[in-house]
UniProtKB/TrEMBL annotation:
Protein name in the entry: Integral membrane protein
Residue ranges crossing the lipid bilayer per the database entry: 27-47, 86-119, 126-146, 166-183, 195-225, 231-254, 311-331, 366-390
Superkingdom of the organism of origin: Bacteria
Keyword Membrane: yes
Claim: Transmembrane helix is one of the keywords in the record: yes
Organism this protein belongs to: Actinomadura alba
Keywords: Membrane, Transmembrane, Transmembrane helix
Length: 557
C-alpha cells in the first residue's frame, strides 16, 4: 500500500520541486522531446498527402505574392488556401529565395513549438501546475487507438508526423490561445486589450483554417454555457458582439481570398470525410479512438475540478455534432472529432496531474491504467515514431511499422515537370505529385468546387480515350494550355502522332511522360483564365470568387 501511496503523491512532489527551478519543469522536458522528434521527422524530408497541396500554395505565392493564380489548376484567383499563414510562408520564400519546400518544412517545426506554447497557456486554467500540461501533451499524442487516424487537425503522434506543417496545426494553436483569451475575459479581464486579442485571434483562425474555427466556436459555446452569469451583463455581451463583428469584418477585408465562399460549397467536401464517420461507426470507434476512453471516468467525475464543467459540455456538444453528421450524411461534421478527444485527454491530465485527489489508491491505480494505455498508444503510433529514425528506412519497413511509404512509381518522371507546366493526368491521384512540383493540373486530386470539375474530368478522360482523334486531343491540350501529359499506362496516347506536338520525355515502367514546348503556358497564366466558359461557372456558384477573378484579370461580370 505504501508504494501506491508514493505513486499517488508523485504529482504533488513534482509540482513542488519545479517551483522556481525551470530546469526541473516536466513540461519543458516533454516539450523538448517533442520538438526533437519534430526536427528528426523534418530532416527525413518524406512527405505525402495534403503536404503537396500546401506546397503548391507556397509555390504559387512565392511566384506572385500579390495576385497569385489558383495553386491547383491556375484557373482562378482568390483561392481559400491563401490564408495569412500561407501568405506569410510565400512571402518568406519570395524574399529569402528559400525553396518553398524548405520554408514549409521549417514552418512545421515552428507550428509545433507554437502549439506547445498554446497548450501550456491553456492548461493553466486546469490548475495543478506544469505536470498537468506535460501529461496533456503526452495523452494528446498517444491516447487514440491501435490504428490512430491520420488526418488534418488530428494531433496523434502518427498524424502529426505528416501534418505538422499544415494550417490545421497552427490553427489548433490559435484555437487554444483564443479559448485562453476568452476564459480570461470571462473571469474579469474585460478591457479593450482583451477584446482586441480575441478579435485578432478569431480572425486569424477563421482565415487560416475554417474547420478548426468551427471547433473553436463549439468550445466558446461550452465555456459560455458553463459560466453564463459572468457573461450576461450588458457591457460584457456588447463587447463580445463587437468582437464577433470585428472578426467578420477583418475576414471580409482579407484581399487574397473569400473564406465565406466555403460555406456555400460545404457539401462538396463531405465525401472525403465519410471515412472518418466510418471509423467511428465501425466497432464503435475503438480501433481508432478507443484509448481515449481512459479519460472518460476523469471527465465524468471531474465536474468540480477547474474547467471541469466546461470540458464536459464541450465533449457533449462535439459528440452530438459528430452524431448529427453521421445520421444526416453531413460527413464534414466529423472534423469535430479532435474536440471530442481533447476533453478526454485534458480531464485525465487534470485528474492525474492536479492537486486534488489526495493520497488514494484509486488515483494511483488510475495512473497505472493511464500508463498502460500510453504504452499501447505508443505501439499504435509506431508509424510516427519510425518517421523520426535518422537512417534510411525501406518502404517495406515503413509499412511494417504502420507508416506510409513516400516514394511512388512516378518519382523518376517528376524532375522533368517545372513550376510553370500544366499537366493532364490519366488518373486524378498523380495530380497531387504535379501540384507538389509547383505545376498546375487539369484535374485536381482534391475536391475543388471552385472550378467546373465535371467538365475537366470529362475532357481528361476524352484526351486519353483510345477512340479520340489527334485533332481533338490537340484541341483539349490547347484549351487548358497543357505542356505535359502523364500516363499511368502505355495506352492509345502513346501511338506515334496520337498527340500532335508532344514527344516522349521520360518513362518508368508503365508510367509515361509526354511533353511539348508551349511558351504561352510556361511563361504566362493558363489559357483557362481567358476561357469565357469558365468564369460564369465560378461567378454563378461563388459570386465573391467570381468578382475577385474578374477584377484580377480584367474580365467583366
Amino acid at each position: 500500500m505504501s508504494a501506491l501511496t508514493r505513486t499517488a503523491d508523485l504529482t504533488e512532489a513534482v509540482n513542488a520541486r519545479v517551483r522556481g527551478r525551470w530546469w526541473r519543469d516536466p513540461y519543458l522536458a516533454v516539450a523538448a522531446v517533442v520538438v526533437l522528434w519534430t526536427v528528426l521527422v523534418t530532416l527525413r524530408h518524406g512527405w505525402a498527402g495534403d503536404f503537396r497541396l500546401h506546397l503548391a500554395t507556397v509555390h504559387a505565392l512565392s511566384t506572385d505574392l500579390w495576385s497569385p493564380a489558383d495553386p491547383l489548376v491556375g484557373a482562378a484567383s482568390g483561392s481559400p488556401y491563401y490564408s495569412p499563414y500561407m501568405v506569410l510562408l510565400g512571402a518568406v520564400s519570395a524574399l529569402t529565395g528559400a525553396a518553398p519546400q524548405t520554408v514549409l518544412e521549417v514552418a512545421g517545426v515552428v507550428n509545433v513549438v507554437v502549439l506547445l506554447v498554446a497548450v501550456r497557456r491553456f492548461c493553466r486554467h486546469l490548475g495543478g501546475g506544469p505536470l498537468v500540461a506535460a501529461l496533456a501533451v503526452v495523452f494528446t499524442l498517444l491516447l487514440w487507438g491501435l490504428r490512430p487516424t491520420e488526418w488534418s487537425g488530428f494531433l496523434g503522434l502518427t498524424s502529426l508526423s505528416w501534418t505538422m506543417s499544415y494550417p490545421s496545426v497552427i490553427g489548433t494553436a490559435l484555437m487554444l490561445l483564443l479559448w485562453d483569451a476568452f476564459l480570461r475575459y470571462r473571469s474579469g479581464d474585460r478591457g479593450p486589450r482583451a477584446l482586441a486579442v480575441i478579435t485578432v485571434l478569431g480572425a486569424l483562425l477563421l482565415l487560416t483554417h475554417p474547420f478548426t474555427a468551427a471547433n473553436a466556436v463549439i468550445g466558446l459555446v461550452a465555456f459560455a454555457f458553463a459560466g453564463p452569469r459572468t457573461l450576461l451583463r450588458a457591457g460584457t455581451l456588447l463587447g463580445l458582439a463587437g468582437a464577433a463583428g470585428a472578426v467578420v469584418a477583418l475576414t471580409l477585408l482579407w484581399p487574397w481570398s473569400d473564406v465565406f465562399s466555403l460555406f456555400g460549397v460545404a457539401g462538396d467536401f463531405d465525401a472525403p470525410h465519410k471515412t472518418l464517420i466510418a471509423d467511428v461507426t465501425r466497432s464503435f470507434g475503438f480501433e481508432h479512438y478507443g484509448l481515449a476512453l481512459a479519460g472518460l471516468p476523469a471527465l465524468v467525475m471531474g465536474g468540480r475540478r477547474p474547467l471541469g464543467r466546461e470540458l464536459q459540455i464541450l465533449f457533449v456538444l462535439a459528440v452530438s455534432l459528430v452524431a448529427v453528421g453521421a445520421l444526416t450524411g453531413s460527413y464534414g461534421f466529423a472534423r469535430s472529432i479532435p474536440v471530442v478527444m481533447l476533453p478526454l485527454h485534458l480531464a485525465l491530465a487534470s485528474y492525474l496531474g492536479g492537486p486534488r485527489g489526495g493520497r488514494t489508491p484509486v488515483r494511483a491505480g488510475y495512473a497505472v491504467v493511464a500508463l498502460i494505455a500510453c504504452c499501447v498508444g505508443a505501439y499504435g503510433a509506431s508509424g510516427g515514431l519510425v518517421r523520426a529514425y535518422w537512417k534510411d528506412v525501406t518502404p517495406q519497413t515503413l509499412t511494417a511499422w504502420g507508416a506510409r511509404p513516400v516514394t511512388t512509381s512516378y518519382d523518376p518522371l517528376l524532375p522533368h515537370i517545372g513550376p510553370r507546366d500544366v499537366v493532364i493526368t490519366e488518373e486524378p491521384w498523380p495530380s497531387r505529385l504535379v501540384n507538389g512540383r509547383g505545376a498546375r493540373a487539369v484535374v485536381t486530386a482534391w475536391p475543388y468546387p471552385f472550378v467546373d470539375e465535371a467538365t475537366r474530368r470529362r475532357d481528361a478522360a476524352e484526351f486519353f480515350a483510345a477512340g479520340t482523334g489527334p485533332e481533338r486531343r490537340a484541341a483539349i491540350a490547347d484549351h487548358y494550355g497543357v505542356t505535359c501529359a502523364l500516363l499511368a499506362h502505355r495506352g492509345a496516347a502513346m501511338r506515334p502522332g496520337a498527340v500532335p506536338g508532344f514527344h516522349l520525355k521520360a518513362t518508368n515502367g508503365g508510367r509515361v511522360l509526354l511533353c511539348r514546348r508551349c511558351p504561352s503556358a510556361r511563361h504566362g497564366v493558363l489559357t483557362d483564365l481567358q476561357s469565357p466558359a469558365l468564369v460564369p461557372v465560378q461567378a454563378q456558384r461563388h459570386p465573391a470568387v467570381g468578382r475577385k477573378l474578374n477584377a484580377s484579370h480584367g474580365l467583366r461580370s
